[in-house]
Write a structure and sequence with these properties.
2 copies of one chain form a homodimer. Chain A is of the alpha+beta class. Chain A is 19% helix and 42% strand.
């Protein structure tokens, strides 16, 4: 069978073919609520749908300095049982301004403040089961003070060239999906603007 | 304060500073289980931790043909209340071979079969609350038969240049985070290998 011709633009959205009935909250804590609904599926058959609702938006901040470097924070993630190097990120409650949340998370985790915070990506992190929203800011015009992490966080911080972080992603050494989304968006944003690509590579440790 | 020198390599992992006690299952369906544990946090203080465990691994397949085109599938996502264009993706139960799951999802959703399925990315999609794992395959050597979607899926399928999909991501028209992870990995894989970049741009519709 021949391949169809490629299209350039997305066609118009179609209407919601799902019907949700009788939504019941099955679990709730300070961060998530789990609901279960009876549903009529797109093919007309009955089923159930469990949805995980998040109290906070996930906000990532990718600081980029004039040497083309960014900052990563390392912490143990008990949900997946491994140590993880990630972009500075945290939860911003609905109601709090997103850029203000980005400013706070960056300062708490790295001690950095920025003159500009630009929103570069807005995605749903796991849309088959959750409503979690992930927003990515790029922070530029950086200056460094003292970090002040939360009690649930035992963080290490390092500075690294964006190009080297992208190679760690390609090599599978960075496993946090939201960090991959954030770095991919920040790297493409930086390349479009031609920013911070002047620094020579850092030699590998012997 | 001066910026620290950039590093090239990640330092060794640190040990798990969390202690989990008394894990109780609070909710369970065919796709997820929610547990709540009493915890001792990294700072030594008590707390609770709710974790969403996934029965399946999320597997995305990015087909790339010799003209530098891929396929997207469109469906309504009731969790986030919007229509979403995504790479072919689905759940692969623990126990099923991942590449076999990739083959099945690609065929069901697009009718495509491939001669090669290469694993290019392995991430955790939302590691503050869930253990969901996302795996990305690039499929090459493509031939087209009949699609056969599941009853929960009412899909539209289109073929589009990878470069154009990346621009839709930059422009915020693609909102599924796993699709962003998959396309970023596939695009960088393709660029490293110098594959499928020969096709001219498709003109925009008037």
């Amino acid at each position: 069978m021949e391949f169809p011709e490629p299209v350039r633009d997305l066609p118009p959205d179609e209407a919601d073919p799902w019907r949700f009935h009788d939504c019941v909250t099955k679990y709730e804590n300070a961060w998530i609520a789990v609901t279960e609904s009876a549903v009529t599926r797109p093919d007309g058959r009955p089923g159930i749908y469990g949805v995980v609702h998040y109290a906070n938006r996930a906000v990532a901040v990718v600081p980029i300095d004039e040497q083309g470097c960014t900052w990563l924070v390392g912490q143990y993630r008990p949900t997946v049982g491994c140590y993880s190097w990630e972009v500075p990120e945290g939860g911003v409650p609905r109601g709090e301004d997103l850029a203000e949340g980005a400013r706070r998370e960056l300062l708490e985790e790295t001690g950095l403040t920025a003159s500009t915070y630009e929103l570069v990506s807005r995605t749903n992190l796991s849309n088959s089961v959750t409503d979690e929203e992930g927003l990515v800011f790029v922070a530029t015009g950086l200056s460094l003070g003292e970090a002040a992490p939360e009690g649930t966080e035992q963080l290490r911080v390092l500075r690294m060239r964006v190009d080297d972080v992208m190679e760690l992603i390609d090599g599978g050494e960075i496993t946090d999906g939201f960090t991959v989304i954030a770095m991919a968006a920040a790297d493409r944003w930086r390349r479009r603007l031609g920013l911070g690509q002047s620094v020579p590579p850092v030699p590998s440790q012997p």
